[in-house]
Specification:
Layout (H helix, E strand, L loop, with lengths): L1 H7 L6 H27 L16 E3 L8 E3 L11 E5 L4 E2 L1 E8 L8 H16 L10 E6 L4 H6 L2 E8 L4 E2 L6
Antiparallel strand pairs: 1-3, 2-3, 2-5, 4-8, 5-7, 6-7
Length: about 170
């Protein structure tokens, strides 16, 4: 566009090249926008006919459903969990999504209060879902910890992970 404006004042050549540059730039922006839209709206992870997540996929934690198993729990408790690797619950896995709960309320209450709400909501939701014979799990959760996250999505992912190594089989009641 700048080149096209510079060409107006004089008798220089290159008007066709300037227009071609504008058209190709616009097409490039449209192509990137289309790829971004496909990536956003393509859906979640691949699932089988029974609705179970296919194993060994890199997926976003938020795309998993209650009952899905995965690897990729960070070593430190305060580290963010974003992309994980889906696993079959029948095999060895680090963690399982136990429940997904929505936090109620008005304005963002702050990180500590949001964490407290998430912990209570997960504890209440998960306790009746866990098999009676399961004792070696810890409950953790991923919750909206900023005002922006609170406005966009108030869902909390409640996660059960093994305290002494990997889990085998679902820790949830059928």
């Amino acid at each position: 566009v700048i080149a096209l404006n510079q060409l107006r004042g004089g008798f220089q050549r290159g008007r066709g090249l300037a227009i071609t540059g504008i058209v190709l730039g616009a097409l490039g922006v449209l192509a990137w926008a289309a790829l971004l839209a496909i990536g956003i709206f393509a859906g979640g992870p691949e699932r089988d006919a029974a609705g179970q997540v296919a194993p060994a996929q890199s997926v976003f934690l938020q795309d998993l459903k209650a009952g899905d198993c995965f690897d990729g729990v960070p070593a430190t408790p305060d580290a963010a969990i974003d992309a994980v690797t889906s696993r079959a619950c029948s095999g060895a896995h680090e963690a399982q999504v136990a429940a997904i709960v929505e936090l109620r309320g008005g304005d963002f209450p702050g990180d500590k209060e949001s964490a407290g709400l998430a912990e209570k909501a997960c504890s209440d939701a998960v306790e009746p879902l866990v098999r009676d014979d399961v004792t070696d799990t810890d409950l953790s959760f991923v919750y909206p910890d900023t005002a922006l996250a609170w406005r966009l999505d108030r869902h909390t992912v409640c996660i059960l992970q093994g305290t002494s190594g990997k889990l085998t089989g679902s820790v949830l009641k059928k």
